[in-house]
Predict the structure.
Amino acid sequence: LLGMIIEKLSGVKYEEYVKKRILEPLEMRRTYFYKNDVDKDPNVATPYVIDRDGNLKRSVFPYGITADGGLLSNVRDLSKYIMMLINRGRSGGREIVSRESIEEMEKIRIETPGGYFRGEGYGLGLRIISDFFGRKLVGHGGSVHVYNAYLGYIPSERIGVSVLTNAPGYSPTFIGQYALALMLGRDPEKELVYILHERVYEKLVGDYVSYKETMKVKIERRGPLLYITFRGKYVVWDIPLVPEKIGENEYVFYSPSLGAKTPAVFYERDGKIEMIYERYKFVKKI
């Protein structure tokens, strides 16, 4: 829709408008819309997908999209774009975008509750985190499945990051925010909640047994949740575990059940991991 508005107001095709107003002034020489331009570039990342069995398969870019994710670029070109935003619209001594426009873009218009940080929301084409370790973080991520991206910057610190991948998988946003946290002198392993959860999940997945191995279950990860799985002769468990509290050596989850919550508590002590679920106590096999 925004691409159509730009074409209507400028009288110029969207791709040409972006090229003349942004790409050429910033000397983003390896940033393209069209396949024929990409084909001329000698160093293009091969796009991949991951099939249901976890195998990496060579794929193709979905050419034809434009304003909604059709610009192909690289981290060096994107760093020029980031610096222009940090410099309030200026690059190489000239104004690319007015300072007022940049500041309007960076104002939260719609709040998005339920995020990892306080004060999250959408500006104009940008996602805003008002309190990223006490600073405003501005950025955005995107995906066309075979290519994925994140761009973020902290205007007050004059730092930024761009992350590009050529396959689906781990979040470029998480990677970028990890790097920004390091640049701020923080410890992302302890202070980024999603990294903290990742590390705990890595510890907890595995095979668990009850007393004298009379019962055996698995803790598996599927997306953002852990699952207790059990395959008995007459009983099958496939129980999602929602994280509730991640402590120092105690990790509290719960399984939802028709409005009720059954706790599953993991303890890490004496080099072992134990789980209490309902009336059962399990110990992780090493």
